[in-house]
Amino acid sequence: MSLDLDDFNRRWLQAWTDKNVPVLLSFYSSDTIYADPQTAAGIQGQEALGAYLTGLFGATPPMTYEPHELWATHNGYCGRWFCTISPPDGPVSYLRGFDLVVLEGDKIVRNEVFVHPLETLPSL
């Protein structure tokens, strides 16, 4: 049975929205490699990723991720999403992001995140 990438991506982005570190880590392999604009050199391993996410989520306001489009690759997918950032004491802001997700089975072995600030969310 092959992995339903749209369902995987939707559940994974929901875990990001929920800031649920244990659930998020369940999507990643033990030796995963993760990189985003703050960790461009990359983080290796589930334990290091968990520590990073715990700190990140403690320092960021509520963020709601909405999947938009997904392109399958030979070993995973590239997914585009939109994010609404809702600080309790400031203006709402928006991001458009792309994730390169490399899979082995149903685990992420490499995740590279690219983001762009937006003035508003586009009509989807």
Radius of gyration: 14 Å
The secondary structure category is: alpha+beta
Return residue spans where pLDDT drops below 50 for at least 5 consecutive residues.
Answer: none
| Main β-sheet description | 6 strands, mixed
Through-space gap between termini: 31 Å
What is the element string, with H for helices and E for strands? HHEEHEEEE
The share of residues in helices is 25-40%
The CATH class name reads Alpha Beta
According to DSSP, the number of beta strands is 6
Mean pLDDT: 96
The CATH architecture would be: Roll
Question: Which percent band covers the strand fraction?
Answer: 35-45%
Q: Number of helical segments?
A: 3
Provide the domain count.
1
Report strand order across the widest sheet: 2-1-6-5-4-3
**Global shape:** globular
List keywords for this structure.
single chain; 124 residues; alpha+beta; Nuclear Transport Factor 2, Chain: A; six-stranded mixed sheet; 27% helix; 44% strand; globular
Description:
The protein has three helices and six strands, in the order H-H-E-E-H-E-E-E-E. With 124 residues, it is an alpha+beta fold. The longest helix has 14 residues, at 5-18. Helices cover 27% and strands 44% of the residues. The mean pLDDT is 96. A six-stranded mixed beta sheet has the order 2-1-6-5-4-3, covered by helices on one side. It has helices spanning 5-18, 21-25, 46-59; strands spanning 28-35, 43-44, 63-73, 76-85, 93-104, 107-118. The protein has a single domain, classed as Nuclear Transport Factor 2, Chain: A (Roll).
